[in-house]
Amino acid sequence: MILDEFSPSRTRRTFTAGGRTLRALGLDGPLTGVLAIIVCFGILVVYSASGQNLKMVEHHLMNIAIAVTAMVTLAKFATPRYLRLFAPIAYVLGVLLLIVVDVTGHVGKGAQRWLDIGFMRFQPSEIMKLAVPMICAWYMHERPLPPTFRDLVVMGIMIAIPTAMIAKQPDLGTALLIAASGLIVMLLAGMQLRIIVVAIPLVGGAAMAAWHFIHDYQRQRILTFLNPENDPLGAGYHIIQSQIAIGHGGLFGRGYMNGSQAQLEFLPERSTDFIFAVIGEEFGLLPCLVLLVLYGVVIGRALYLAMQGQDTFARLTGGAIALSFFVYVFVNSGMVSGILPVVGVPLPMISYGGTSMVTLLAGFGILMSLHSHRKLIGS
Amino acid sequence: MVRRVRIKDHWGEQRIFWIRSVIAVVLVSLLLLTVAARLFYLQVLRHDYYAELSEGNRVRTDPIPPSRGLIFDRHGVVLAENKPAFQIELVREQVGGPAELEATLARLVAIGLLDAEDTNSVKRTILSHHVYESVPIKLQLNDEEMARFAVHRYEFTGVDIRTRLSRHYPFGPIAVHALGYVAAISEQDLKHIDSAAYAGTTLIGKLGVEGAYENLLHGTPGYREVLVNAAGRPVERQGAYTPKLNVRQPVAGADLILSIDMRVQRAAEDALIGKRGAAIAIDPHTGDVLALVSTPGFDPNAFARGLTTKQYDALQNDIDKPLINRALRGAYPPGSTVKPFYAMAALKYGVMTPEQTLFCPGHFSLPGSRNVFRDWKPKGHGLVSMRHAIMQSCDVYFYTVASKLGIDRMHDFMSIFGFGDLTGIDIPGEKPGLMPSTDWKRHAYKRAAEQVWFPGETISVGIGQGYMLATPMQLAHAVSAIASRGAIFKPRLVSAVRPAGSSTLNTRPVEPEPSLNSVTPDQWEVIVEGMELATGPGGTASVATAGTPYKIAGKTGSAQVFTIAQGEKYHEKDLAERLLDHALFISFAPADDPKLAVAVFVENGKHGGSTAAPIARKMFDAYLLPDKPPAADKVPALGKVL
Question: CB-CB: which of B6, B47, B58 is closest to A266?
């Protein structure tokens, strides 16, 4: 550690004390540290993006508290053994809850994604974000790698069931993320190149078939993405306004709490899905790049931890969590900056509301648990 | 078949994962770089473009309407000004919900500031605006209504009195047909105005000077940048900051100084009260119109205030047609007022000499025709010379002149005075009247039989009847040409323009038209003397013009409305009022040095001498007699009249 050279100092004592605490809790120092920086920055941005709404900040802090609790609890107590046992239970439970949501959704009207469990509302699809990669990792754990074609088909079915149900809700964005998280496991497990090559045209064909089954508004979103200026006040409004916000920020930004796009509410969903545009407008290019670098560090560190995993389940689960996180970052920043279609994906660790923060930190909790509970053999 | 059992190869599996992870890291880096590149594109390369778009988003430019130019008479009397009008306005979000709005309107009805039957339309208007907009619900409060609202003000929230500038005409209906009026911008107006220049303006000039000089009077609107949020609501701050916003003050419209002299105008208006008619006074040396009257008029203030459909229909359907500008649009047979012009034509073409006498037996027939043209004096005028023919308005003399001239020479000569053509006065709506000719008749009718000009038709035109039609404006224009002995000017109402903020007047140059040179001074004097005799003892207008310290030269006229059949007699007592002859009088004074030329026309006024001439007399008195000083000495230094 570089800081060792500055001994004996209070900094060092504090640092080592902090390090000890982290280790005791089963947390990884660098990963936790970078995540903490991003979360704190997120609090500042939410305050600005919400139009200086302290109630929303309060609620955001509550969310963070729940998420951190989930992360620490999982990191400390969810041993790999329990996790492996729990993976199929979580998956089955998730599917059942999706059915419940689907039924109550029919009773109510329109899209139904939420389940009210008294103290908070939560989306069963959030469970699936972790349950799907875990069930795939669980499935591959006992089997030799790389996966056989049969293994891939089984995993494909396990991925397809929740994906289809969530897409039907309809929540195309989440469905794609969940499918991606499962696919990541397949790829990390060593899915052969030739299968990938064959799969791409198959997926393309499936996408074209899916075009006929998706909702009109989803089709509209894709069309609008291809040409947002077509419908500037309707479907294209989000994309146009968020690009204006980012472009308006320029190199140095308009200043904290001084982004006209965000503060005057031209930017829709400014504190949730489009919060990245607020950062772009108020802080400018450099902080945006720094944020991307921080995300890169998180992904890299998470992948590094996953690589140290001692069994297939640990490695694949960890790798999937790390790369899913990347997918969220990329889909959101790509959507907000106009290189990907608008899908309802929040910016990880920063966007206000929802259960995304809890899921993400729970995922990192699992990742760190798998890392910290590894048996110290060899090496 | 032997099934191959694969066993787990831990190192191999770890290697697979590591390789895949490394590939993943490369892909992750590449994709994050893509996002970074996109951000660079948006924030650096296209920053200006998006900054401009965001500016367009957040800054709304609210127009500030210019204040309309003022209108003065030639002595600086204000004829049209901008006065604050008070109106009740309501802001919905301050009132509260639908129940409170309902209650507020009910209370306004209860204190008599809103008609119960208007409630629904007012409510609709309110609901069609944003909740934060101030919506006018009652315009132009009078003092009593202001006081009533003041008493009850504490009962209302979100309802208050606001001020805005509205057009005000201090003299009401006086000179309305010269001034025109302003009214709400109509759909039709929108087609030919630049809507940006009229943003925030509700009234536009219609007819008269207000209409003709709209682009000078209107001015240039200013603007105020307003910070708005996505809902369009004006806001003070954006997040934690108050941005700097631009304001450009509007430029007021130019003030107009009219050639109108309110003393002459009012004299004519007063004299025409209760009559349908027109009177025009022109300075014969400039073409300045000193009075332009058409009665009945209407109150232009009502248009600025906003007329209801019912009120407008009432004006439109009024049997006296107050909306019609008779001075410019009333084409009537000019009757005997044309006689001095034909006398001049006779001299010019040499068909008569001034001293040559003619016996008037009271009737006239063309050679070989049994058609009899009667003189207005059944017994006849006896022997008449040109001067006396004008003085007594001898019809037979002019029947003879007409038959000797022929219609085409009459047409050519009268055209020089502007008959049959627009005078070119600087306000819209003028009618050309009709000066017939053989050529005209050939084109006016389709059937060959109707295209032939009959000699008898020339005879009627000789006393200003038949096909001939002239507007009072044309008569004034023509008589001023006699007054100036042949110098003709385009008549005008606006003599000077004062740009906003300037203290100097831009006087508009007079516009001379081709003058009449072919008439010698001696010949002019014959005509003028004839017209002087007409206002003297034994003349047709002697009663009205007696006792003036200046000499009036004039010519009366009466035009038949009702055609009398051959051999029938004209009994004015038996005719309904609206079938009586129109009364006309054209004149100028002083006769030897004319300062004012006047044409008066009174619909169904019977006799020019008894009805029209006294009106002209009052106008001359108002202008020429020194006991009536102008209302103001000069135009105020700056148009700072609010």
Answer: B58
The string of pLDDT tens digits covering residues A293-318 is 999 999 999 999 999 988 889 999 99
Q: DSSP secondary structure string, A68-111?
A: HHHHHHHHHH--HHHHHHHHHHHHHHHHHHHHHHHHHHHHS-S-
Divide the 642 residues of chain B into consecutive groups of 10 and give the mean pLDDT of each group.
63 88 94 95 92 80 86 93 87 85 90 83 81 78 87 87 87 92 82 79 88 92 80 72 80 93 93 92 95 92 77 83 90 93 93 92 88 90 93 93 94 93 92 93 89 91 92 95 92 93 86 85 92 88 82 90 56 67 92 94 87 92 74 41 34
3-state secondary structure of B642: coil
Beta carbons of B324 and B330 less than 8 angstroms apart? yes
How much is the ipTM here? 0.90
What's the rounded Cα separation, in Å, for the pair A250 and A259? 11
CB B293 within 8 A of CB B327: yes
Task: Give the residue carrying structure tokens 């040095």.
Answer: B593
From chain A, the residues in CB contact with B26 under 8 A are none
pLDDT digits (tens, 9 = 90+) for A24-41: 888 898 999 999 999 999
Q: Is B24 in Cβ contact with A303 (below 8 Å)?
A: yes
Instruction: State how far residue A317 is from chain B, nearest Cα, in angstroms.
Output: 11
Residue A3 pLDDT > 60, yes or no?
no
What's the CA gap between A204 and A202, in Å, rounded?
5
User: Length of chain A in residues, anyone?
Assistant: 379
By the 8 A CB rule, do A316 and A188 touch? yes
Compute the distance between CA of residue B372 and CA of residue B130 in angstroms, rounded to an integer: 77
Nearest CA in chain B to A187: B20
Q: How far is B34 from chain A (nearest CA, A)?
A: 9
Contact indicator for A205, A212 with CB cutoff of 8 Å: no
The dihedral through the CA atoms of B71, B77, B82, B86 has a sign that is negative
Q: How far apart are CA B176 and CA B494, in angstroms?
A: 15
Record: contact A260-B58, CB cut-off 8 A:
yes
**Dist CA A128 CA A95 (whole Å):** 8
DSSP state of B449: G
| Integer angstrom CA distances of residue A334 from A221, A329, B297 | 14, 8, 72
- From the CA of A295, how many Å to the nearest CA of chain B? 9
CA atoms of A74 and A365, how far apart (whole Å): 5
β-pairing, B582-589 vs B78-91, is unpaired
B28·A326 Cβ contact <8 A: yes
User: At B168, phi and psi to the nearest 5?
Assistant: -135, 135
Report the chain A residue with the minimal C-alpha distance to residue B49.
A247
In sequence order, what DSSP letters do the residues of B392-429 get, joined into one string? HT-HHHHHHHHHHH-HHHHHHHHHHTTTTS----SSS-
Shortest CA distance to B509 belongs to which of B527, B497, B499? B497
Active site residues of B: 336
Q: What are φ and ψ of residue B277, in 5° steps?
A: -175, -170
Q: Which residues pair with B248 in a beta bridge?
A: B223
Q: Measured between alpha carbons, how far is A352 from B48 in angstroms, rounded to an integer?
A: 30
Question: Residue B241: which of A258, A300, A307 has the nearest Cβ?
Answer: A258
Positive or negative: CA dihedral B202, B207, B208, B211: positive
Residue A337: in which H helix or E strand, if any?
none
Dihedral Cα A268, A273, A279, A282, nearest 10 deg: 10
**Residues B320/B297, Cβ–Cβ less than 8 Å:** no
Closest by Cβ to B239, choosing from A263, A315, A338: A263
Q: Nearest 10 degrees: CA dihedral of B255, B261, B263, B268? A: -120
pLDDT digits (tens, 9 = 90+) for A235-259: 577 888 899 999 999 999 988 988 8
Structure token pair of residue B256: 């107009």
